[in-house]
Specification:
Helix content: 40-55%
Largest sheet: 5 strands, antiparallel
Strand content: 15-25%
Oligomer: single chain
């Protein structure tokens, strides 16, 4: 082999070696580029998942928020997350600068969320405290109502006791039949007037003063004997009576007399005399005419 051929072979060998080296280096670079691309694609996917998780967190907090101002702020941040998610979706994985910027935005939004979480927790604690206080107030109010109801019932009972204690009472009732000369008669056909004698008993709890006693005469057939359909107040209504008498009550026992002029045909049988004072029935007495 001559010198020229040797040189040529050497040059070719060097070129082959150089080309092989370049090919190997290019292959390595391509593998590095592919690996970097895969890494950046993975990072983009991870970033998308983080944005999605963040959006779901905002959804969860919005459901439980009752404060309108805080709810509006959360809605704004949620919209910001959605906008960034859309921006990330259309960003190429190879755009490292944009990906890094979106990472920084994500970190900023997380910091904002932490502040909101603190506010939400604070509001939640306050709401729970208010709920406890409201429950305690309602329980106290219910207890007071129950106590007031009990006191009202006791007062009603005491009032009833006092009212019953202060009611006047009729005793020593008798009916005398009189003829036209106002003399006692036992002949039914001669009866022209009925004389009713009775006593109002002593009662120191009754307020002294002018009183009116009403008497109702009930015939054997159940009809009320009355002259002019006069009435007196009784149990939120009006009740007809037969006779009435005004008298001044001093608190001591007092005898009274009332007369019924017979202007109708009397029935033989059992009559009833009912006495009322101050709207109370204070005595009922049966008597017989025969």
């Amino acid at each position: 082999m001559n010198k020229k051929t040797f040189i040529l072979v050497a040059v070719i060998a060097v070129l082959v070696i150089g080309i092989a080296f370049l090919l190997v280096q290019n292959h390595q670079q391509q593998e590095n580029i592919n690996a970097m691309a895969e890494t950046m694609e993975f990072e983009k996917e991870q970033l998308e998942e983080e944005y999605e998780d963040l959006a779901l967190q905002y959804d969860g907090y919005q459901i439980n928020i009752k404060n309108d101002s805080l709810a509006d702020l959360l809605a704004q941040e949620k919209q910001r997350v959605q906008d960034l998610r859309e921006e990330l979706r259309i960003t190429k994985a190879t755009d490292a600068k944009k990906i890094n910027a979106l990472k920084k935005e994500l970190a900023t939004i997380r910091e904002v969320m932490v502040q909101y979480v603190h506010q939400i927790d604070s509001l939640d604690r306050q709401n729970k405290q208010l709920v406890r206080e409201n429950r305690e107030v309602r329980e106290q109010f219910a207890a007071v109502q129950e106590e007031n109801q009990s006191l009202a019932e006791e007062k009603t009972k005491l009032t009833e006791v006092v009212s019953r204690a202060s009611m006047l009472e009729v005793a020593e009732f008798s009916c005398t039949t009189l003829n036209k000369r106002d003399r006692k008669t036992s002949f039914f056909s001669q009866i022209q007037k009925l004389q009713f004698d009775f006593s109002i008993l002593k009662n120191i709890t009754t307020q002294p003063g002018m009183k009116t006693v009403y008497m109702r005469l009930i015939a054997p057939d159940g009809e009320l004997l009355t002259k002019d359909d006069s009435t007196f107040p009784f149990e939120n209504g009006q009740l007809e009576y037969s006779l009435k008498k005004d008298f001044e009550y001093s608190g001591e026992k007092q005898a009274l007399v009332m007369y019924w002029p017979v202007e109708e045909i009397l029935q033989k049988g059992i009559y009833n005399a009912e006495f009322f004072i101050d709207g109370n029935l204070i005595g009922t007495f049966p008597f017989q005419l025969k």
